[in-house]
Each structure stands twice: as C-alpha cells, then as structure tokens.
Amino acid sequence: MVSQDLLEILRCPACVREKDGLLEHYKDSWLICQDCGRKYPIVDDIPVMLIDEGDKWVETAKESLPVPPPAK
Amino acid sequence: MPNNSPSRIPYLDLQAAIGATRHMGGLEATKDLVCLCRVGPAHHVLDVGCGPGTTARLLAREVGCRVTGVDIRPAMIARAIEAARSARLGSRVAFRVADARSLPFGDGAFDAVLCESVATFVEDKPGLVRELARVTKPGGRIGFNEEVWVKPPPSDEYMAFMRHNMDVEPDLPAARDWEGFLLSAGLQDIETRVFDRADAGRESSQKRRYSLADGLRILVRSGWLYLVNPAFREYKRLWKQMPEGLFEYLGYGIFAGRVTVPHPKKDLPVGTVRSIYRQAGWDWTERK
Fold first, then answer.
1. Do A16 and B91 touch (CB under 8 A)?
2. Contacts of B77 in chain A (CB under 8 A)
3. What global pTM score does this model have?
C-alpha cells in the first residue's frame, strides 16, 4: 500500500513541465495520467515513474490493465 | 563511447548488484552538502540518484527530515526500501523509480534537493540542474557533489580509464562551468567548494556512510559476485589498471545554490549568461 500523502506529490514525468500531469490512483496498482493517459505500474509498492514504462501501457484501456502489474 | 563489451558490467549496474554506491568525500562530503543546502528537520528533501538510500536514511535519522529518494534502477530502489524497513524509518523516507532528467513531481514540491555523483553520468547537465530547480520551492536550495579535474590529467590514459571503466564521459565540466549551470538555471547565492583527495580523513569517511550490518552485506554480495560472475571478475581486473595517481588529478566539487522564483523553463539566452559572467568578473570562453 502506497501512502496517500506520498502519492499526492507524484505527477506524470512526461506532462508535469507543460501541464498538471495529475495521476489517478487505480486499484492500488497503477497511476494513470489524466492528461496523456500514460499508465505507471506500482510494482511491489514501488511506483515506477519512468516515461518509457508509462508509454508501454498508454494504449491499454484502464479496465484491461493487469492487477497486480507484471513484475519485471 | 562507453565500453559495452558483454564481458563487463556497466558501472552503475555493478553498483546496483553490490548494493553500494560511492561518491568522493564520503560521509564528510554528504555533511557539507547538507550544510550548504541548509537542510532542517521540518524539510522534505529529494535525493536524486539515491542508490540504496544511504544518504536518505542518514538524513532521516540525523536531521529528522522527510526524504524522498529517486533512482532510475529498480534494483537500487528495492534495496533502499528494504534497508529503510530494517532501519524502522517508517514514513519518513520514501523511494520511487524515476529518471532524474524528467522527475515525476510538481513544481516546488521539495524544500531542498541533493544530487551526489549523478550528474557526472548525465550528458545534459544544465538541463538536469533546471529540472532539479523546477521541483524545488522558491527559497529552497539544490546541491551537487560531482567529479571535477582539480589538475589537468597528464595523459589520455586517465581519460580512457574513466570512459571505459566508469562509463563517464571524461571531459568533465570545471567548477566554473558548474557555477554557470547553476546560474543559468536561475539560482542565486551560489556556493562552491572544490576538494582534491589529499585529505585521507575525508576519503576514509566513505565507509562510515554504512552501518556495520550494511558493510557486511556489501562485503558478502561482492564476494559472492566475484565467485559466480565472470563479468564481475573482469571488472575487478580492469579496475587494477587504474593509471597511477589518478586521484591527484580527479577531485570533486560541491556546488549549491538557492532557487529563486520563477524558474526559467528554457535556457537563458547566451547573451544574458555572458552578461552575468561579465558582471561577476569571470572569464567568458565561447562554448559549442
């Protein structure tokens, strides 16, 4: 479980410089950017906030995201 | 070009496998950095390129502040979380996998930002400084501890060693270049300390960054890697070819500055930087 106040400061690394890059915390397993739709997995309680990682899931509908996300 | 031959592990992967990182000046340099960044107990600090979280734990324990650490290597972050758990630091430290060049935080999220021997491995250093300044609150400070040549190395051998064994582009910026990077990111009150490695006390403080238990774990992991991994043995062999007296030439600088508002989104125009140099009475050499 990733604590809420620590999630509060997280933003999408691809969007934060131009827009808000606010993230939706989805099923305790994903962080979904409200601007670009990149999806960042939370693997073993560790949010993986790499743009490349977010890119991998950008086309996947949020309902189809694996829970828990695949481990590397 | 870095040495990518399959027989050798990239330097930073090697550090992740062992679970230890190094920066010049060890614990003493970390203390200097914390002082120059005026880190206090009420602060939330970002440690960029935190490795296994050694500095983050130290800050949480000794200063009592909150620390978030980011590292691009998931293996490092996993170790950092594990170590913070054993140290019972609770919610005072948190770790994320992130790229220092595009941080997953909003503007002004932190009171201070530290970066120990990370920028050396990043090509666009001015861009990195800007990104760190972006996530710092106005009035907060950012500080770097990075390798610099304190004397020009006498031959190409030294440069080649850095390139092939540490995956560092050895054309390191000088201390004055660093001041320029900080200035052009809109920082003020820039403070610089340059050290060579002559002070043995500072250098031996490298080990004091780790607890006895950490030290033993690192020793066991290194021993195990030496036994099972030929690439690790190859690394050890190459390391022994370090040119004589490398550390007479290679030292480090601690650079800190105060973030002012507003932070520039782009580089300052070259003319503005030239004018800052002129007003400061510094030499201006045209760069590519």
1. no
2. 46
3. 0.80
